[in-house]
Amino acid sequence: MCHEAEFLATPAVRWLGVHPRDVETLGMDASPLSRTDKDKLRHLSERPYTLADARLSRQVDLQLESGVKAEIEGMARFSQCYLTDSYIPTQITGRLFI
């Protein structure tokens, strides 16, 4: 449905998942990016909505530079409730910035 992409977009979408900066900031476990991951990130960095959003563009660049990725499930190592009680509410209220 790529021909209808502009009608499927959500202009106020928020990134609630793990940000590349979280890997270092929170000391999360990370895995190396695969060649496929790197290709996807490069393609993502060229998309108009990424180019139009400096914060999103910076996060894509950070992930490429770091060469690693983390899974949101990795936050369970902090505590069983960290993700739902702390991280996601903080992301929603905007107290953490990408």
From TrEMBL:
Pfam families: TOP6A-Spo11_Toprim. Residues 1-92 form the Topoisomerase 6 subunit A/Spo11 TOPRIM domain. SUPFAM superfamilies: DNA topoisomerase IV, alpha subunit (SSF56726). It comes from the Eukaryota. PANTHER family: MEIOTIC RECOMBINATION PROTEIN SPO11 (PTHR10848). This is Topoisomerase 6 subunit A/Spo11 TOPRIM domain-containing protein. It comes from Timema podura (Walking stick).
